[in-house]
Amino acid sequence: MPTAFLTEEQQAAYGDYTGDPDPTQLAKFFHLDEVDLQRVRRHNGSHHRLGFALQLGTVRFLGTFLANPIAVPPIVIDFMARQLAITTERVNIFETGDDQEFRFSRAGSSACAATLSGGLIHAAVGTGGGVGGPCTKRSG
User: Fold this and answer.
1) pTM of the model
2) Residues 37, 25: contact at Cβ < 8 Å?
3) Predicted pLDDT of residue 124
4) For the chain, what is the largest distance between any 2 Cα atoms, rounded to a whole number of angstroms?
5) Which 3 state secondary structure label does DSSP give 55?
6) Is 129 left (phi over 0), alpha (psi -120 to 50) or beta?
């Protein structure tokens, strides 16, 4: 994306959270409706479901993916985790440096990346694109 028209400060902040979203922004960009929840539930493991939901909200809020997909403000993690009924203790695995589950989820990332990013874009803009592949549950 062209960024030459942005100030240096704006360029440095592009694609990153520069602070906590306010309650209105949380409700607008990070609320998971029933369609979102159906998409999220297709993923195996709470760490995949939370990660997908965080990226979905991030794409809606920032308009891009994060270079580090877990560099999300704690308020956003808590907001999304509550909607998914994932306990805060479960989320703290990522914050404490014990990245065992993150390593596990990252192991399949090359196989999942194109599928997930395409599905997230469809989900973020409200088109009917599906998400499938090795990070999602198989039916049947």
Assistant:
1) 0.64
2) no
3) 55
4) 52
5) helix
6) beta
